[in-house]
Structure formats: C-alpha cells, structure tokens
Amino acid sequence: MSATYSELNKDSFLWMYKTMVTIRRFEEQSRREADAGKLRGMHSSIGQEAVPTGICAHLRDDDYVLGTHRSHHHCIAKGVDLKEMMAELLGKSTGTNKGKGGTMHIADINKGMLGANGVVGSNIPVATGVGLSAKVRGTDQVSVVFFGDGASSQGVLHESMNLASIWKLPVLFVCENNRYAESTPFEFTVAGASVANRANGYDMPGVSVDGQDAIEIHEVAREAVARARRGEGPTLIEAMTYRYQGHFGADDPLGYRSQEEEDYYEARDCIEQLTRHILDNGIASESELESLAEQSLQDVLAATAFADESPFPEPEELMTDVYVKYA
Length: 327
Prior knowledge:
By secondary structure, the protein is an alpha/beta fold.
C-alpha cells in the first residue's frame, strides 16, 4: 500500500473501505443468486473493487460514469441504490431499468451512471460525447469510461482519445487491465505490454497504476479529475488489477491460468491492503471496520430481500421503454 497520499481524511478512508466491502458482498450474493438460477450472465468484479472506488471518490452525482459488461462495482462506487440494482439483476419491476436490462445494463441517470453495456468498447465513444456535451454546456462535469484490456485495441478507443485530446474534453479513459480478455492474456494482444503508453500518441497523460492499491488509484484520479475540471483535457489511466473468478459464472479460469498466479494476486487483495493501512496507521479501529463490514452485509441482504419480494414486470410492459420519444 502506497505510503504517500493527500486529501484523504478518516471519512475518506472509511468511505473507500465500506464501498469496497459492499462491492465484495454484493458480488458474492449475486453469484449465489446466479447459482440458484435467478439471474443470467453474471460477470463478477471480485478483486477489482479498488479501481472504481478510488476514482469515484472524486466524482459528484452530476459527473458521469459509463461501464462494461462487468460493471456492478462501477455502479456501487457511483452510488446506485443496492436494492434497485439487485432487483434489476433478478428482472424485477423495481429495478433500475424496470427489470428489462439485467446485470449488463444497469443505469441510473440521477446518479450519473449512464449505463453498463455488454458490447466491448461501445461506451468509449459515448463517454467522449458526454464530455463534449459538458464542454459545450460550459459545466465542469467529468465523464469517466471504464473498459477492459480486451477493449483497449478497439478502434473507437483511439478515435475517441484523439478527439478528446484535440478538443480538450473532460474525459477519463480508465482501462481495468485484469490481465485477461476472457481467456486471452493481455501480453498476447497489447503491443509494448502497456495500454498507458498509448496516451503518448494522443498528447495526453497516460498513467499505469497498481489497481490493487486504493490509495494509489485515489491519488492518480485526484489529479486526472482536477485536470479535466480545469478544462485541460483527458487522461488515460491503466489500472493493473485482477479478477478472482472466471470471465463469467461457468468459466473455469484454471483452464488458462495457474493456481500459483491466482494465489499471488489474492495475497495482494485490495481490501486487505486498505484494511492493513487503516489499522497500521491508527486511522480507525478494528471494531469500527467490523461495524462497517457488518453494515455492508446487512445492506446487501436487505437489497436481496427487496428484490425477492418485488414483482416481475407485467406482460403489457414488454413494449414500453423501447423507444425514446422527443417532444
């Protein structure tokens, strides 16, 4: 865990801790719901909790986030309601998208979460357009798009970074490099073994950060968000992280990576690192952290109960919310 940090007080540390634990508990419960056959298409973000937490710590409700097929952690870090999220996962009418989007299409405009998307790289140009909107409207809002190493070679990323740099748009391009695009190691597909280095070609800062270190991510994001708000343009952040589970629920990752590799990264667990830092530096007591962890668990259990008790959409709802009507 990085020893240097700024603008992080006790409340900030505890917010990051609770957010990361909440993500972990939500994902564990989501996996149980998937195993019970209540949801389809589960893509777990366990292991990657620190990345959106460190970044979203600097965002306001009116800032924007766009995600991927693996976006539960983005939504929670941005403040989307757990009950509505779980209801959406289970296809209930009380979900964020009335049960019609499911796990890969959670959105809450009121929280600035403009949506997850199962199409690789598809939200990158959308986030760039959102950044352009903020600039045209003269606000200091920031647009953040998360994508994986598998999307880092999509043409839309390079087109978007080019335009964002030319127009100095307030966009953070955040690559969650969890080292595998499904089962393909990123070394097989990323020239130069670095996504961050690609920023050089677009005249923007490119930073590679330890994605298991919440404080380091917080520091890098602090400057990137501030730079965007000042009207100085975009930043590319490559967060080196690791997903503990398979690409999806039925995927066995030991078919393409070793147990030794998994053990190495799990020994560097982002929640454990932050916990040790908080305790070793006397920022909070063990009982305080235990209380927050218990609260996170209860919040997730309450969200699950809410989702279970909620009704499915009525059949006549099938054709509503399909098209946008303009006045």
